[in-house]
Amino acid sequence: MRLKEKVAVITGAGSGMGRCMAELFVREGAKVVCADRSGRQDEVAEWLGADAAIAVQCDVGIGADVQRMITTAEERFGRLDILCNNAGFGGRMMPLHEQTEENFEIVHAANLRGVFLGMKYGIISMLKTGGGAIVNTASAAAVVGWKHHAIYSGAKAGVLQMTKSAALDYAEQGIRINAVLPGNTWTGLVPASQGNAAPPPGTRALPGVPMNRWGLPQEIAAAALFLASDDASFTTGAALPVDGGYTIGFSGMAAETSDAPEFPPPF
Ligand SMILES: NC(=O)c1ccc[n+]([C@@H]2O[C@H](COP(=O)([O-])OP(=O)(O)OC[C@H]3O[C@@H](n4cnc5c(N)ncnc54)[C@H](O)[C@@H]3O)[C@@H](O)[C@H]2O)c1
Fold first, then answer.
1. Nearest CA to 161 among 195, 97, 202, 115?
2. Which residue among 121, 152, 170, 246 is the active-site one?
3. In a domain? residue 266
4. How many angstroms does the Cα of residue 14 sit away from the middle of ligand 1?
5. 221 lines ligand 1 (CB under 6 A)
6. In a domain, 120, yes or no
7. In the chain, N or C: fewer CB atoms in 10 Å?
8. How far is residue 2's CA from residue 256's CA, in Å, rounded to a whole number?
9. Is position 231 within any domain?
10. What is the pLDDT of residue 244?
11. How many CB atoms within 10 Å of residue 114?
12. Residue 262 falls within a domain, yes or no?
């Protein structure tokens, strides 16, 4: 019960990582506001039970929606202790010059403006009660380039830097602000962004990922739980990769390559 009597707001709680966070946080004793724009947050909250969870329809890119989401936590459960700014999506993937201005606006509205608004109104609430913990979902794409993801990775890099700077603003006021950086994780977002062409987890190796598999949303939720809980009481401004080693760097060449090309002797 690492979140006993804590009140948490989780955005993007209708699916994937956010849904897993909601389930895990309730198991750990929290009261949870499940926020999403999809409508799926209703069934998640219903499944978790009215004592533990409530659903809020919220587009995180809209200030009035985000304010209402925070106010709902205060009115229903009395305060706000934890905020997971997790909602986001990749948008259309293509080379940068083919991208549209409209795609830039909608991807940044959800991924970057949404985190700004969540932190702004969440922090106003937390300052009234003397502290809290914020966990922002950035991405491995915040720290390495992803082909055809320039708009998305730009937004996620913004999330990462906003996390660090805001952590400095509130370090003395009891508000810890950290980011989790998921790598390739098997959620609804993946087939949606790849034309439903991606393989299910475990069926195929994932090149470039040292652990050679997809991550699971439960593994991201576990990292968010750590950062949200008192286990991370001396941790702020951190960026925690949960990516099977993807962002470590070059992971070496295969030990045995029967078809290795002939190279000239090195200088
Ligand atoms: N799946 C991955 O491989 C991966 C990798 C790195 C980062 N991420 C990030 O993780 C987070 C969670 O994604 P997921 O993989 O669980 O995807 P998902 O599609 O399963 O869940 C995302 C949820 O966010 C909601 N959402 C999107 N835009 C919203 C908005 N403007 N307002 C309110 N709700 C909104 C969607 O309705 C959806 O329910 C996202 O921020 C995503 O960018 C995902």
1. 115
2. 152
3. no
4. 9
5. no
6. yes
7. C
8. 46
9. yes
10. 95
11. 28
12. no
| pLDDT at position 263 | 75
Q: Write down the pLDDT at residue 188.
A: 81
pLDDT per residue rounded down to tens, the chain (267 residues): 999 999 999 999 999 999 999 999 999 999 999 999 999 999 999 999 999 999 999 999 999 999 999 999 999 999 999 999 999 999 999 999 999 999 999 999 999 999 999 999 999 999 999 999 999 999 999 999 999 999 999 999 999 999 999 999 999 999 999 999 999 999 987 766 665 556 665 556 677 899 988 899 999 999 999 999 999 999 999 999 999 999 998 877 655 556 666 778 877
Identify the CATH number of the domain in which residue 64 sits: 3.40.50.720
Give, using CA atoms, the residue closest to atom 32 of ligand 1: 59
How many domains, in total, are found in the chain?
1
What would the two tokens of residue 166 be? 């805001």
Cβ of 89 less than 6 Å from ligand 1:
yes
Pocket test for ligand 1, best of 9, 10, 11, 15 (most atoms within 8 A of CB): 15
Phi, psi of 34 (to 5 degrees): -95, 110
Distance, in Å, from the CA atom of 152 to the CA atom of 149, rounded to the nearest integer, reads 5
**Token pair listed for 201:** 């987890």
Give yes or no for residue 158 CB within 6 A of ligand 1. Answer: no
Q: Which of 1, 70, 77, 11 is closest to 44 using CA atoms? A: 11
Tokens 């009115």 label which residue?
A: 75
Name the H helices within 38-149. 41-48, 63-77, 101-108, 114-129
Query: Domain containing 82: what range?
Result: 7-256
The residue whose CB lies within 8 Å of the most ligand 1 atoms, and thus the one to mutate among 17, 20, 56, 112, is 17
Q: Which two tokens stand for residue 19?
A: 């849904």
pTM for the model stands at: 0.95
Q: Is the CB of 217 under 6 A from ligand 1?
A: yes
CA of 73 to the centre of ligand 1 (A): 21
